[in-house]
Design goal:
Order of helices and strands: EEEHEHEHEHEEEEHHHEH
Number of domains: 1
Helix content: 25-40%
Number of helices: 8
Strand order of the largest sheet: 5-4-1-6-10-7-11
Radius of gyration: 18 Å
Largest sheet: 7 strands, mixed
Amino acid sequence: MDVIGVIPARFSSTRFEGKVLAKILGKPMIQLVYERAKQARLLDDVIIACDHELVASVARGFGAKVVFTAKAHPCGTDRISEVVNPLDVKIVVNIQGDEPLIHPSMIDSVAEALLNNKDLNMATLMKRIEDPALINDPNVVKVVVDKNNFALYFSRATIPHFALNSEVAKPVYFKHIGLYGYTKDFLFTYKNLPVSNLEKTERLEQLRVLEEGFRIKVIETKFDTVGVDTPEDLEKVRAILEKDKI
């Protein structure tokens, strides 16, 4: 296989336990994510990686391929690594199980970048911020890139900082969208990198990649998502999807 999508679906969550099974438009959230992932053109397969029998049972019920993984994994990257270790695949796309607004083209963009450039190890997405309220929101991760769209830094802070005497009339800010693609080989390199100081400071796992000197390609997308971390986020997503039905 060339490309597979893996959806880590952990049942426990500090702020919202069982959120992947929360109902949206009559379906569990994980089903919406799975159905959107299945629409991606470049995925040869989609697998749900879960750690709870209830999630596995629900996922099998709507026809998903499920792999049961260890409960002790500290993050989704480790869960995905367990799934893909025995598979003959070139590229792995990490699709968050709490991103029901993910668009299939976002998945294809990441996969295509890695398929078309053998020098790339890892790719992710960014979306131009249009709502000024999001620029200073620490829950919205910002990214700055170089002229070739490789990440320079990810931060919860407002980057780039707009200096008062700046010659730029209006800076452009980009939101990082946490959908990642990796070559299989680099996935295991990433998994074994030590936790970095910047990662601990910002609480952003991808910073360990930059601190170790690896590059992350960042692709601009016109689509946005809302990650569901709290019941309030769930209501936002429900409102968006209800509006789309009208």
